Input
Amino acid sequence: MIARYAGGERGACGAAREGAAVVVVDAFRASATIAVLVRKGARVIPVASIEEAERFAGADFRIGERGSAKVRGFDFGNSPTEVSDAEIPPGATVVLSTTNGTRVVEAARGAPAILTGSFVNASAVAEALTTGTLVEARGERVTVVGCGWEGKRASEDESAAGAILHRLRERGARLDERARRVVELYFSRPEGVLRTNSAARRLTRLGYERDLGFCLAEDTVPVAPRLSGRAFIGGVP
Output
């Protein structure tokens, strides 16, 4: 297996065209929120726009943010700690729309497999891609896509992607040069730097500081959310 790194919607779209499985990494915070929801047994429907989320019929809960702030009228913001504390029953249908993550998922449509990953489930995602039924679905290529923020690089997404790529390499994957550089950044960039970057400061300003510790903890939500039809589902590999 060859594992690559790419950035943003363009990277996700290119990976899908090449027939690679795609892992969407939005470390602050969509990937962690989806992992928590899937662990609770929910079906998570990612949509690109707020309007689509509002129109979606049959949703038990609506979750969303723009500019990191909760969308007015939705049940929850894109907060993994808020969602973790909430009573969301197994089998619930949750519609999710975020500034970056769900748009990158949309750009990856057509890929043989689409997963979401981050620090919180890096090992589970790597395991899912190297064992079990996903091996046939992913083929020989996997692209880990860092979402970034409004078209720009995001250090937290690069580091979280590096965590996943490092674990894939430990399981025998060959990394291209860019992926190797991202792994080096994962090892060289301390957590303290990520806790004070622009995204972290924005979340702290909005009252979501507790999400930072949650999103930066490694392998605390051992699920590998995968897109099946329109919904992310998953389980413990």
About this structure: The domain at 2-227 is CATH 3.90.1560.10 (putative 2-phosphosulfolactate phosphatase).
